[in-house]
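Hey everyone, long-time lurker, first post.

I ran two proteins through the pipeline my lab uses and got sequence/structure pairs for each. Pasting them in order. The first:
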Amino acid sequence: MCEGIDINTKIIAVVAVVVIVAAAGGAYLLMSDSSGSKEYSTDEYPSRLMVLGNANLDDYLDERDVAYLENIIKQEKIDYDNYFMCDANFDKVIDEQDVDYLKKMIAEQWDDITYAYYVNVDYKVCKFDMTTSKKCITLIAPPLDNVLILNSSLVVGVDNRITTGKYAEEYNTVLDISKLVDVGNCNDPDKEKISQASKDNGGEMIVVCGTQESYGPNMEEALAGSGVQILRLPSWEYGATTQGFITLGYLLDEQDNAYKYMEWYDGVEKMVQEIIKTIPEKDRPWVAAAYAHTDSLQLLGEYTGEYANLMKLGVKDVAEKYLNGQQTGGHGNAISNEAVSAMVDQYGMQYLIGMVGAPFQTQGEYQAMVNTYNTWKNAIGPALDECEFAICGYSFSSGVSEVLNQLILGKYIYPDYFADVDVEKYVNEYCQFLGIDDKWTYDSMNLLYCNDPSQDIMNNRG
């Protein structure tokens, strides 16, 4: 349940009045507009562990948060906007009661306090009943990946793209699809099936999904009273992969597995960044990424994992120049072949990365990758004679596997600098984390095709 507090809402008031509200052991500072509503905002997610009570904004709830909170409430005035993560019990007051609540959270005395409060994908503070079953229904692949890494036994239902759709091949060795509840379309899931799954689980169920705009917009209202908790956390949205993953690990009581994976994830990303630091500006090319599995190329911008991973590789940003301050949608902006030519001629694009459904989907088969490459190479024509072009799979570009995309594209764009990086090792380790390694390994995947055997990362030629 979300409590109607939107921390991403900007205060729009002709006259703003500062109100000091006294609290035991301290006070907090609010902004009140002329209507009397009390709102506060943030431009980004507050921390990787987005659970209120994480006062010092690190990845853990522990005694360091208690000490931090105790120091905060000694202040004569507390700016609630800056310190709302200290409000462990989310009563809009930062005081000694938050210290007591936080201590019970750390001791996992959930029978006493019941709820943890967290920031969801839509920047709303919501509450989660920590005393209930952790069985989950997931919508779309990235939230499913998160739960599989944390504890695959928690998954009891998925959407139809997992059961019978394009992602089925990826998961059929780690999940017994025949025993899962199929809730249909991830954008408008079958609420009756979700409700029945809750009944079958003693009146308790969790739906793990993304934004309210995209995934079951009316689930909260339609499933009220059914024992279903809608847990909306970023799994790929807005580049907040780690925030959603660590927070989910906490709420599902799977912190150990969450921290184990994050140690691996952070290690891979740190390795990539250490290499990027050594690359001089003159060796950093102009690059753009586009979805290449649609009728027209879709130029990708800041809302997508593909774009975010490219930027982490320190490349020069063609999309920003081409868009000239405009934003792309979540699935990019359609661009013509002529636009590609313009990006090469006018903006100096040196690499274009075409993202397709690979390595797990049909488009990831060897000949399909080659055919897609040839189709676009022929369609775009002379512009690609002046620009390097590659086809890469989007399945590793968004969500907790995104560090693999950084490795794969780093190996392609900077072959000399990434020469000693063992992509095979890290791909196989990820598959083990996900539990799909009975079928999927580096040797059974096609990861990147550029029609150059020295740079192609293609292994499944059968």
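...and the second, right after it:
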Amino acid sequence: MAINPNATAITANLNADDLALNYIYPTLESVGVLIPGVTINPEVSVEVGAASAFYYKNDDPVVTEGAAGRQLNTNAAGNYRKDILLNRSLQVDELIPHAGAHAISVDLVGDVLVKAAIKSANAWGKLGLIRMLNEGTAVTGTASTKSTIYSNIIDTIEAFDTANPERSTGANYIIVTPKTLGLLRKSDEFISNTVTGGILMDGIVGHVGGLTVLLSTQLPTIVHGDLSNYSALSGVEFVVGAADAFIAPTGFKNFRTIESEHYFGVKIQAEIVYGFDVADANRLFFRAATATPQA
């Protein structure tokens, strides 16, 4: 958080830490379906001010068979570090007209910062979903109905498990479109979040087939033009995945207010650097009516 790099407060009424803790970070954490430990891998290290993040990818261990008591041979090739460049960013540069940086109220700044944070988080979330689809594994079929949606989800989970024969941890979430959620709510197998009350996080709407269900209003807005690996895409219904499959680190989140050099007013500026990576396409499936890979 960097509203003013030279001080902890803009004025006596505008404390940078208060704005960050009470307005910005809660908003960034509550918007979208990219949630650490649920849909994205939390085991990623980002150094402060760094231009990259990294994680260690574990391939399948090598198991040998032979005489008991034989010499052990260490396999060092099964684990390796993978770096993710944080070379993309989302920026906001909004004007609050006819206001002074030393006279503006925290409520007004907070309102603009929250809107900026929501807009940034939504943009980041959609970019993440695009990366999921672009590098995930597609399953195609006729459009689901209220009678077939549950079986289609179970079939996709089965395809997921078949593609991961040596992984004990299966899929843990499903991201659905509003249309798919509507079909699920008409099925007996869907457990709404009203059953479990307030213990569920934002974005989570229930459970089905042993998976946490999250609603994404952005998922159906993704078209084939957003993807580089598919020449045709239509009728996306849901994404089934494991939390370890998708990496979504962000760098230092910069927010600040400054006097405008062109207008009579104050500018609210923000920049969030980010990077994405699909660690394993076999642990990220999506179902669509059409998903044609690029030739």
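Reply from user beta_strand_b:
Welcome! Quick read of the second one: The chain has four helices and 19 strands. The first strand starts at residue 9 and ends at 11.
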